[in-house]
Amino acid sequence: MSLILGIETSCDETAAAVVRDGSEVVASVLATSSDIHLKTGGVIPEVAARKQVEYIIPVVEGCLLKAGVESAGLSAIAVTVGPGLIGSLIVGVETAKALSLAWGKPLIPVNHLVGHIYGNFINKDPSEIKFPAVVLIVSGGHTDLVLMKGHGNFKYIGGTLDDACGEAFDKSARLLGLAPYMGGPAIAKAALVWEETLKKGEVKTSFTFKRPMIGSKDFNFSFSGIKTAVMAKVKNRHPAIGPAASFWRQPESKNVDSGFRWNDKQGAGFNSDAYEIAYEFQEAITDVLVAKTVKAAKEYNVNSVMLAGGVSANTNLREKFKNALLKTSHKLFVPPIELCTDNAIYIASCAHFNFKPVSYEKVIADPSLTIMSSAALQ
Question: Does the record bear Cytoplasm in its keywords (predicted)?
Answer without folding.
Answer: yes
